[in-house]
Design brief:
This is RING-type domain-containing protein. It is built from 3 helices and 3 strands. The protein has 138 residues and is mainly α. The longest helix has 47 residues. The N and C termini lie far apart (73 Å). The structure holds zinc ion (2 copies). One zinc ion binds next to loops.
Length: 138
């Protein structure tokens, strides 16, 4: 192999590696943007789930929900209808937990219902699909 050919091959290899690095960096930055968007949306869901609207007195939690959930999943003690007993309600499934039992920490770190492990919020309704206009040319 001549020295000139070896140099050409070396330059070609360096260019190929540089192109690969740029392509990987571009793909990675795109992936990071998507992850950041998803993470931001999930963080927003968590903050909404931990808002004042989901912190209610046990007596205010839905009657049907109270009938099927008599004990707190964290402390296993029965709920009482004392005015000061606040519960954190998961909007998607209606499960609730003593606020004092720190369900908030679970929700903040795992982003799911502590009891059923379901999502915090029901899935957003999909926009209606509009029928495409049909033009008939006679
Ligand atoms: Zn509890
Ligand atoms: Zn649940």
């Amino acid at each position: 192999m001549s020295p000139a050919l070896a140099l050409d091959l070396e330059v070609a290899a360096v260019v190929a590696v540089a192109v690969l690095i740029v392509a990987l960096a571009a793909a990675a930055s795109g992936a990071c943007r998507d992850d950041a968007g998803t993470a931001a949306a999930a963080a927003e869901d968590v903050e909404r789930a931990l808002g004042g609207a989901t912190l209610v007195a046990y007596a205010q939690a839905g009657e049907a929900a109270r009938a099927r959930q008599r004990c707190c999943a964290f402390c296993q003690s029965e709920y009482v209808k004392a005015p000061g007993e606040l519960v954190r309600v998961v909007p998607a499934c209606g499960h609730f937990f003593h606020a004092a039992c720190d369900a908030d920490r679970w929700i903040r770190t795992r982003r799911t219902c502590p009891l059923c492990r379901g999502a915090l919020w029901p899935p957003a309704p999909r926009p209606p699909v509009r029928a495409a206009a049909v033009v008939v040319v006679a």
